[in-house]
Amino acid sequence: MRNTVVLNNLPFPSLLDAPRQTGGNYGGNQGSGDGVERQLPTLLIILLLAAACRQQAITPADILMELTTTNTLIGETTLLLAVTDSDGNAIADPGALKVRGDMSHAGMVPVFAEADQSTNGIFSLPFTWTMAGGWIVEASLTLPNGELASETFRFEILSESDEDEMTGVDHSAMEHSAGETSAVYLRIRNRGAADQVIVAAESAAAEQVAFHRTVVENDIARMEAIDALVIPAGETLELRPGGTHIMLSGLSQDLTPESTFSLQLKCESGEVYDLDIHIADMLMSERDDAISFGDLTFSNRWARPAKAGGMTHADMPMNSHADHSSG
Known about the structure:
This protein is mostly beta strands. The chain has three domains: 11-21 and 29-47, no CATH class; 60-174, Macroglobulin (MG2) domain (Immunoglobulin-like); 181-320, Immunoglobulin-like (Sandwich), CATH 2.60.40.1890. The protein contains three helices and 19 strands. The strands form three sheets. Strands 8, 9, 10, 11, 12, 13, 14, 15, 16, 17, 18 and 19 form a twelve-stranded mixed beta sheet that branches. A hairpin with a 2-residue loop joins strand 17 and strand 18 (296-303). The longest helix is centred in the first third of the chain and has 24 residues, at 32-55. The two termini are 57 Å apart. 24% of the residues are buried.
């Protein structure tokens, strides 16, 4: 609800009712009444400015956000975020905006953008779709009063070949629920004198667990399945966003931030390593979670949050690759 200034209900009516002195010599002493007259316009201006400030004190409940993209193909685009009130009126100074884009198929490095200025309530942000597929874009708006408003938007991004093939296709059949997949990241150090090969992974939290790596060709990123993780003697394999990772699909439980689940890794020698995996939006610092089995030490173990349900590994578009990989 907009605030309205009511001049006849000011907190000091005595100033409005003060007697005015007329006549006399303007160069002389006109008395206390003229002093009040001179103060009154200033006081009214202050009140009007205060009322205007109150009108602009928006809260997250007062605003609506709409996000659009100028391009739905892999590559550079511009995101346009419009901020309006509940009546559809543009909000002139909505605050500062941060945007994070994640693939619904976990394993890719997030894409970030931000802007601290808007034009008529519209933010314009350069952005890059790094891979074809489903994207989840979270817009976080810090309002002038310091409160945070956020909303999530979804886009289906195509490659040029996809666009040709998708003509006349019902795109609604491609939509999936949020958080269909997750990815596990960790560091594996081999302190021994022989190479170690991890050939399989499983978890009660997911129907299918597979090894993937991200491959970039001609500035286009894609997922590629691999059949094992190789940790050479005396070296360390780092599983991280945008590189090699362990994909979880067909989740049987929600993976919520700050919780954990169990993951089993099977070595070529037949040994099985049981690991607790921490769930976080992003690993911001080193985790003190190192655990050793024989010559292998596992640390920095974490996975992306996700909801149960959605695609299984067999449903995912990617290239298969049978070679062993160290990342």
